[in-house]
Amino acid sequence: MTSPDSRAQGATPVDHRAAIMAETARFVAALENADPATPVPGCPGWTLADLVTHTGSVQRWFSALLHARVQEPPRTRDVDLRLPDGWDGRADWLAASATVAAEAFAATDPDLPMWAWGVDQHARFWARRMLFETLVHRIDAETALGLRPTVDRSLAADGVDEFLVNLPFAGSFAPGVANLRGPDRTVRFLATDGDGDWLVRLRPDGFGLDASGAAAGSADATVRGTAADLLLLVYGRLSRDAGAIACDGDEELLTLWFANSAF
Fold this sequence. Notes:
- This protein is α+β, with helices and mostly antiparallel strands.
- Helix content is 40%, strand content 10%.
- It has a five-stranded mixed beta sheet.
- Strand 2 (197-203) and strand 3 form a beta hairpin.
- Helix 1 packs parallel to helix 4 (124-144) and helix 2 (48-68) packs parallel to helix 3.
- The chain is globular and about 50 Å long.
- The model is unreliable at 1-10 (pLDDT under 50).
């Protein structure tokens, strides 16, 4: 279920389908006795109830796309959510959303050609995307509830890779990426726990991961942290000024990147 288009150097393959179930179960476990009105710092303006509804809705919408074998951008996001009234039953509904997704995966060849907004035009794109939508929002929920989130290193590295490989295609909902241009400038993201090394190249006409890999040479700017911290960083859940992150090189380039790479 990993993308054939990009892999972090040394990264362990991830079973995206199984990981969605596991991450959803962790999310659901965190909700026990939780107040639905709890603010979610990772999603300003959202409550915990909003976060749960969003995550389950995305799982069910992606599942509908898989069942429909979409070959072009969908004209609507309407789907039967079967959302329970009020907060009671919402955790069970989220767990059931992952089951809906598992049924869609079981009925769909991951290598089936499908429309996707990202680089990988196959059904497997949606499983990988669903995983990191779920994982990041599980972290949001745990953080909002005062828990200490952890992320498996291989999952985190795959998540950084998935983010960076798809970011150039995210302009329809992340317009800032259009500003990520430059005269052949490079930003390196290096996982200090040995499970990822990525080189992003900015060109006059856009940007993307450099197929030659980061290890081949130096970069104009370098960002270092564990794979888990890099995942939180690229998703805006961790500041680059945090002690867990080390940045060096072209400060103007780093400012440009972080000001325009919000997902």
